[in-house]
Amino acid sequence: MQGKFITIEGTEGVGKTTNIEFIQHWLNRRGVEFVSTREPGGTPLAEQVRELLLTPREEKVGDSTELLLMFAGRAQHLDQVILPALDSGTSVLCDRFTDASYAYQGFGREMDCSLIAKLEQIVQGDLRPDLTLILDIPVEIGLKRASERSTPDRFEQEQIEFFDRVRQGYLKIAEENPERCAVIDASQSLEQVQISIEAVLENFYSQASAT
Ligand code: TMP
User: Mean pLDDT throughout 176-193?
Assistant: First the structure.
């Protein structure tokens, strides 16, 4: 049996890290065998690509360069980690995946989404996540949280309008893919957020075990 492919998405400062830990504990309690990974990154080579992408630099990084690097890392990550796990029946919990390319490069950078769809087809074929949790929060709150945490990376240095477009992009993706996407209101208390996440996971795994 194929493993399940679960992705977590959201703009900066939505609380992905804390909630991923919560999901890991939930999966462990449930006895689900899984690997936890992230994008960009997830293999030694793809982590080097991540460094290239996130490091602030004087040289302007072209939009196409950024998009192609995202998909280069993704191709390696799929080949080395994601596909072997899923094929062996292990689930994959991934901190960001291709929805981030639509949200950040497509909506944020205003690149042509049909170009992203072509790369998605080349790199992934028909593979799509089985479940995507989109943590949603007003951009100002998220950016404030993110700025308190560490020095901003190349993306975090963007203007608020960029993140507003990214957020709207995620909400549009959720609207267009209701069968796999669940939007979680991450401005609630952490306890409420985790109750919502748990409800989504319960529902997903009860449907998965019924099929
Ligand atoms: P994070 O993993 O620390 O959230 O940061 C990764 C950054 O990379 C984040 O700002 C979103 C961005 N990103 C894209 O722009 N496109 C992508 O396809 C992915 C996976 C991430």
Answer: 97
